[in-house]
Structure formats: structure tokens, C-alpha cells
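Re: that chain you flagged

S.,

Sorry for the slow reply, it's been a week of failed gels. I finally had a moment to sit down with the sequence you sent. For the record, here it is as I used it:
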Amino acid sequence: MKLSEIKAILPTLENVAFQTPDGSFVPEHFHVTEVGSIQKHFIDCGGTIRKEQVVNFQLWNANDFEHRLKPTKLLNIIQLSEEKLGIEDNEIEVEYQSDTIGKYDLGFNGTHFVLIPKTTACLASDACGIPAEKQKVQLTELGGSANACAPGSGCCN
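Prediction finished late last night. Pasting the C-alpha cells below so you have them in one place:
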């Protein structure tokens, strides 16, 4: 989800809720402790120099159980971040504490936001020797007579 998308969704909501990948929800008393822009400048294993830029939200649970972040407050935080930091309309990455700091893509299911697990991947698989995944094929799809090796056909004698 891009920053412009969350900005369009927030005014339509009564509450801000984030669902984790296991189906549970980030506790209602969470805080958005950071909104920022993160740039990653790197070289992949194939030697290609790359740049990625995301808008980062950090969610944090405190012990102030009465706290509730309203959609308008989050929208104000986003707008202040855009103004003060020059944040652009990039994809949102959410940091949330699990066993370690988890990084998630952000989705929306029509009622609440969904944290989507991020995974690692090789960006240069053609250059670093990773074999292509073998195609799985049913033997019956290889052609020939449909009953060439049917029981009693004599093909295995």
C-alpha cells in the first residue's frame, strides 16, 4: 500500500486497527512512534546497484492502556511527516515487535489494516547460479496413449 492509499482510507474509518499475520490484532493502545522515509542503497549478488525507498511506520505498545490512536490523528502525523521530512508517495513498510522487529507490507481488507509478512529473495537469480525451479508435471501429461501403462495393458512385462 502506498502512502496516498492510507491517506485516502483513514478519513473513512472510525478506528485504526492492524491485524497481524496470525489473525490477532495489534493491541488497541498501540502508538505510531515513527513515520519516516527509509532508503536502501545496495548491490545485489549479481553486481547490480539498486535503490529502494519506503515510508516506514513503527508500531509500539506501551502500558498506557487507555490510549487510542484515531484516524484523524494518524493522518495528521503522516501530513506533518510529509511536510517536515519531504516524504514521497512510496510503499509503506510497518515495523512491529514480534520475536524481533518484524517488517511487514501493509494491506487493507475493507475494515482494518493488515500486516503482510515480507520475505527475502534473490534479485539476481540468473546471475548467481540459483537453478530455476523445476516444473512439476504429471506423467499422464507427457503424451502418449492415455492407457499405455494401464493395469493389464502389458507395458510393464
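What I noticed first: The helical segments are 3-9, 71-85.

Talk soon,
D.
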